[in-house]
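User: Can you predict the 3D structure of Methylglutaconyl-CoA hydratase? Sequence below.
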Amino acid sequence: MADELVHYSVERGIATITLDSPHNRNALSAQLRRELRAHLTTAIDAPEVRVIVLDHTGPVFCSGMDLKESKGAGSTDQGVNEFPELLQLIWESPTPVVVKLAGPARAGGVGLVAAADIAVAAEDASFAFTEVRIGVVPAVISVTVLPRLLPRAAHELFLTGEKFDAARAERIGLINSAVPAERLDEEVRRFTGMLALGGPQALAATKQMLRRHPVSMADDFAAMLELSAKHFAGEEGQEGIASFLQKRPASWVPRD
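Assistant: Sure. Here are the predicted structure tokens for Methylglutaconyl-CoA hydratase:
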């Protein structure tokens, strides 16, 4: 039996869910997605859990979809097909969710960050929407990311794939707080302590109020999933994934 890639613990009303797949930079493999979804469901269903913290081991928070699993898969078999359910589970959780980043987030990993209610990062953490650089579209994560970002920043960062630091992530609304690495635990405790003071039903109702949107998230995810899976399985997406895995420039990158 494969070792567990996501761990779960509860202490004084705080459920901590820890991504522990450092060998592939906590990529969103099928196993990791399955275990993360199961632990999130456990925490949401537990009346004693007042706050959920999403943590990680290793130097990287989450590098996005596991591209080794995406290579060669058709549009109906892409791992991204299961991702909307996971993001929606975090976004719609009646229990507040706090993300703690001691390291970088990329692509789908940024989607997890945006889905949470509170995100705290070490100052040396970095972020990037790298999808276009491998010929795919950041469609699914756009459902959670775009409500957070300033529009100009969203256009720039989605289209260029440029890496940006935690200070800018805070300025454009992606995260709540960027602190020195040695203060990261303290800052997470500050937020979880404040959240735990709220009435559970009041917090759940307030989250529902904040989520009001003229288009249902399910419909938005369905449309974006179709777009995303099409590009993951398409010729350009498969070439981009292959070039990433082979550590070479993609065929469309200009050469001297």
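Residues 128 and 256 are 26 Å apart (CA to CA). The beta strands are 6-11, 14-19, 51-56, 97-101, 105-106, 118-122, 126-128, 164-165, 177-179.
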